[in-house]
Structures are given as C-alpha cells and as structure tokens.
C-alpha cells in the first residue's frame, strides 16, 4: 500500500518537474516586464493610441488583414473612454465609474449597462458579459508580469533594437498556443511600443499586431470627457449579454 | 415778471439742450464720418452705413452693460470653489441620467421594457372606429395583468436547408443566418387603421370579428389581429400559433419558406394556407420580410444589432438592394 502511495507521489512530482524544466525565464526580460508593470501600477491616468492589424479568417486557409485604431484614456480608479475606428466600426465606449456606454457613430445607437466600480473589474466584466475586448488590456493588469510568467513557458530578452528611431527592448515569449513579442521603450518609462502575438492553436497561424503611440501619462482629464450625452436622435437599444 | 419767466424757460431749455445735444452731436458725427468714408471710397459704401449705426447704437449700451454686468460675472467666477480655468461653465443642455438596459438572449422582458406602454404611445386607435368615450389608451398590462405574449409560441421553425456557415456563438446560443449582416435603422410599420400592436386596448370589436379557440383559450380575431377579452374591452395579444382563421387581410405579403412552400405575413404574424384556411405558424428561419411592427426592438448582440419581436430575432440584411430582415435561427449551442 505504502509503495503504491509513494509511486503515486513520484508520478505527481515527476509531472511537475518535467513541466518546470520546460519553462525558461530570462531574468533580464522579467526585470523589464516588471519595470513596465510597475510603471503602470504607479500611474493615476494614462492615454494612448493603439493601431491594431490582425489576421481574420476570410475563408478556409485564407486570412485577410483587418486594421483598427483606438484612442484610449484610462483614469484610475474608475473611468475610461475608448474611441474605436476600424472595419465598418466607428464606436465609443465610455465608463464614468458606474455605467458603461457603447455608442455607434455610424448607426446613432447606444447601449447602457450598470458596471462594476473599478477599471479592472469593468474591463473583465465587459469581456465576460458583452464580448468587448479593450485593446491589449492585459498590459494594464496589476498582475501582468506574474500572469505573463505563469502563462508562458519561455520568456527571453532578445536584445535592443530601434522602432521609429527610438531605442527599445525586444522580448520574446512562447507557449504551446502562441508566441508573443514585446518591444518596450528604453527611455526610463518602459512603455510598450509594439506587441505582436502569433497564434498557433488553429490549423493556420495568425497574427495580431498592436502599435502604441501618443502616450500621455498622469494627464488630468476633465470629468466631462467621461460623461455621455446622447446625441440628438440617438436611440437607446437593449444590450444582450452572454448568460 | 413775464420776462423773468421767459429767461428761466430759456435757461432750462439751454441746460436741457446741453444735456441732450452732445449725444446727438456724437451720433451725427459718427454717421457723418461713415457717410464721408463711404463717399470717399465707393468700394466700402455697402459696409460703412451698416457698421456705423450699430456702433453708435451699441456703444453707450455696451459701456453701460460693462459697468453693471461684468463685475457680477467676474464675482461669480472668482467665488466658485471649483479649481478649474473658469470656475465651471453653465450648461444649456441637461445632464441626462442614462438607464441601464440589459437582457439575456432568451429574455422575454425585452419587449416589456416598452411593452407596457404600447397602448399609450400609439394613437392609432383614435383615428378609427373604436369607442373614444372609454379610455382607449389605457395601460392595459398594468391594470388587467393580461399577458400579451403567448408562452406557448416558439420563436422560429428551422429552415429547409442547412446553413453554410457555423453559427455565431453568443451566451450559449448559436445565431445562424444565410445572408450577411447589413445594418439599417428600424422603423415600426403600421398595417393600416385596423391593425394594432400588442397591448393595445379597444372597447368594442367590429362586427366582422370571430371567436377562435386555441388550447382552451378563447381569442377574438379581426382582420389579422388577435384580441383577448379584458375589463370590458379587448386587448391585442400575440397571435397564438396553431390558431386557424378563414380570412387574412388582402395585403398580407407572400413569404417564401422553401421553393415549394409559401407563407403569408401580416403584422408580424405568419400564416400557412391549407384547405382554404390559414393557420398561424412560427416564423420560418431563413425567410425575409421587409416590415416589422411596433413592439419590435433593436438589440445589440455582440457586434451586430438585431431586431427582436417576441422571441424571434431578425437580422437586418439586404435582398436585391432593398432593406429587409431575415428570421434568425437561435439555438442552444453544443458545449
């Protein structure tokens, strides 16, 4: 009996050991990620523009590239505004601390939903209940570097390079589902400049690339920026949530 | 004595003239200047006369208002406790409170958000031959607890052919349509004076109305509309699926369900013809209609805006370049 239990423990332990051995974490890369995460953790507000290009399945074995651009302003602890332009999209998401409003400029429609009282919960809730994914919100999570190291099997500092003439740190990460590359500025702020995710889980790999620009740190944004006044003629419709 | 009076009068007139004339003199001078300028430079004659009077007229008043109003404004601004550039602006629009409006895929209450007031919002009844002396537009749902919706009805019946694409999954349900999404704004359609939306109260029925029974429930039917008796009158209810009538309105539209089957569509209700009778059937998924009645409501499902009427989801599409709505199949997704 004891032999069986010991054998069982051995199996469990060996499983963990194998897994641990597969992980490879570069301390330089982790330090840079922690710096970036720590910088976001100390901000009271942040604004930026993100330009996204992603591969979208158009037909079997045929991906097409779609582009979108977002102007994002986040104010701690509970406000954001995201102006989104993309393929047939011209939308606004606005959060004033108690409600999230979606407004479609193209159709002059809006929806209103009572939201949680802080940014992180609201971003999660938007994704879970309404399938709204805000631009690479993961980067702003307080637990970003921990989540990143937990989920990735391999993280490595790939060296210093330049984007638009600026010196950046290049970090590569991978697990069985995706590879992620991050370019983080070497200007003391450690701001992300570019993120490139290559998904490997489908029959074909496909990419999601985000370029960050126009960073505004600790800017004092007026309250009115986060208040939504329905434009004349705008119609409120029901927002169907996932159950 | 008389001469003294004249002197006093002359003196008074003189003082009065001194008080009044400077203003007049100024006015004349300005006008003169403007006219002179205008005369000297013909190209500016048009502008000059209009500018000059406005200046002369506005100047004294503007100086007066400066003295009185400016300090008041400044005081208000400076005394404001808000540490902003101008102490906060005064608004001409009201701050609106936005009410949350969220529902689930299978939520029956979507229509009821506005449904309780259907009867009150529409004044269709006032235009037609119903008894206006009784409160026609009463809030039927609240008073009588009549459920205008029919719980036995089902939202759609599946199409005769399979969908070419996998469904869009949302909240455990798969939404399937044949045509691509093409948004166009929803405007309720009225099928004429004899048609009424759900919840509409009518005091008396036309003599053409007949009684229809479905599963032991008695309905009154008249020209494409089903009523239930309530509180001394009749309330428009959702057409009960399975009800059979002999006549439907002549402007019912033909809806192609499959190459061999057609349905008739009127006022949000689908009828199938058999042996000269028309039976109310569930909406045929995959078919399209171009009008939806009041009581239907736009809802945002993921990235798309559907129109929901009863339990049926309609996808805005285009058919031969014309706006239409395709009846969506919404089935529980396999996990």
UniProtKB/TrEMBL annotation, chain A:
Any Pfam family the entry gives: DUF2092
Swiss-Prot/TrEMBL keywords: Signal
Residues in the signal sequence: 1-20
SUPFAM superfamilies hit by this protein: Prokaryotic lipoproteins and lipoprotein localization factors
The protein's name in its UniProt record: DUF2092 domain-containing protein
UniProtKB/TrEMBL annotation, chain B:
Region (Disordered): 32-134
Compositionally biased region (Low complexity): 46-72, 110-134
Lineage: superkingdom: Bacteria
UniProt signal peptide: 1-25
InterPro entries xrefs: DUF6515
Biased composition (Polar residues): 75-102
Keyword line: Signal
One Pfam family linked to the record: DUF6515
Protein name stated in the entry: Uncharacterized protein
Organism: Algoriphagus locisalis
């Amino acid at each position: 009996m004891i032999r069986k239990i010991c054998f069982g423990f051995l199996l469990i332990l060996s499983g963990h050991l194998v897994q641990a051995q597969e992980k490879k974490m570069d301390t330089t890369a982790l330090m840079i990620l922690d710096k970036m995460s720590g910088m976001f953790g100390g901000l009271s507000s942040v604004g930026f523009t993100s330009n996204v290009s992603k591969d979208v399945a158009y037909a079997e074995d045929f991906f097409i590239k779609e582009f979108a651009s977002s102007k994002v302003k986040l104010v701690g602890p509970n406000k954001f505004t995201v102006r989104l332009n993309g393929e047939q999209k011209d939308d606004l998401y606005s959060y004033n601390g108690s409600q999230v409003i979606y407004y479609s400029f193209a159709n002059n429609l809006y929806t209103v939903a009572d939201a949680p009282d802080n940014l992180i919960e609201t971003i999660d809730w938007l994704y879970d209940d309404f399938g709204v994914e805000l631009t690479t919100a993961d980067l702003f999570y307080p637990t970003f570097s921990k989540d990143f190291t937990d989920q990735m099997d391999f993280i490595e500092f790939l060296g210093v390079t330049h984007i638009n003439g600026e010196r950046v740190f290049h970090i590569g990460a991978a697990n069985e589902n995706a590879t992620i590359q991050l370019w983080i500025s070497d200007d003391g702020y450690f701001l992300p400049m570019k993120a490139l995710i290559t998904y490997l889980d489908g029959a074909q790999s496909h990419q999601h690339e985000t370029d960050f620009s126009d960073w505004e740190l600790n800017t004092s944004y007026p309250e009115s920026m986060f208040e939504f006044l329905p434009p004349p003629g705008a119609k409120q419709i029901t927002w169907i949530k996932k159950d | 004595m008389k001469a003294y009076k004249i002197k006093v009068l002359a003196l008074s007139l003189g003082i009065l003239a001194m008080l009044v004339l400077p203003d007049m003199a100024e006015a004349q001078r300005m006008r003169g200047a403007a006219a002179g300028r205008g005369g000297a430079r013909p190209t500016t004659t048009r502008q000059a006369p209009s500018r000059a009077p406005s200046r002369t007229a506005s100047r004294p008043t503007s100086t007066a208002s400066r003295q009185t109003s400016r300090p008041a404004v400044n005081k208000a601004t400076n005394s404001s406790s808000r540490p902003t550039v101008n102490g906060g602006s005064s608004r001409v629009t009201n701050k609106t409170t936005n009410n949350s409006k969220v529902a689930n895929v299978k939520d029956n209450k979507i229509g009821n958000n506005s449904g309780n007031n259907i009867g009150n919002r529409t004044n269709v009844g006032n235009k037609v031959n119903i008894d206006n002396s009784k409160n026609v537009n009463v809030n039927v749902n609240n008073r009588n607890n009549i459920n205008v919706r029919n719980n036995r009805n089902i939202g759609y019946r599946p199409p005769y052919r399979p969908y070419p694409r996998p469904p869009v999954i949302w909240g455990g349900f798969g939404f399937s349509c044949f045509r691509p999404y093409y948004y166009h704004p929803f405007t309720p359609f009225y099928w004429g004076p004899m048609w009424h939306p759900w919840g509409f109260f009518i005091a008396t029925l036309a003599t053409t109305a007949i009684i229809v029974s479905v599963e032991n429930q008695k309905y009154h039917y008249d020209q494409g509309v089903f009523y239930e008796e309530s509180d001394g009158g009749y309330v428009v209810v959702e057409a009960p699926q399975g009800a059979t009538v002999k006549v439907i309105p002549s402007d019912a539209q033909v809806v192609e369900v499959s190459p061999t089957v057609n349905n008739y569509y009127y006022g949000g209700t689908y009828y199938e013809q058999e042996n000269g009778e028309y039976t109310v059937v569930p909406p045929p998924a995959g078919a399209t209609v171009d009008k939806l009645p009041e009581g239907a409501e736009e809802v945002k499902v993921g990235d798309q805006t559907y129109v929901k009427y009863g339990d049926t989801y309609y996808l805005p599409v285009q058919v031969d370049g014309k706006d239409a709505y395709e009846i969506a199949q919404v089935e529980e997704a396999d996990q």
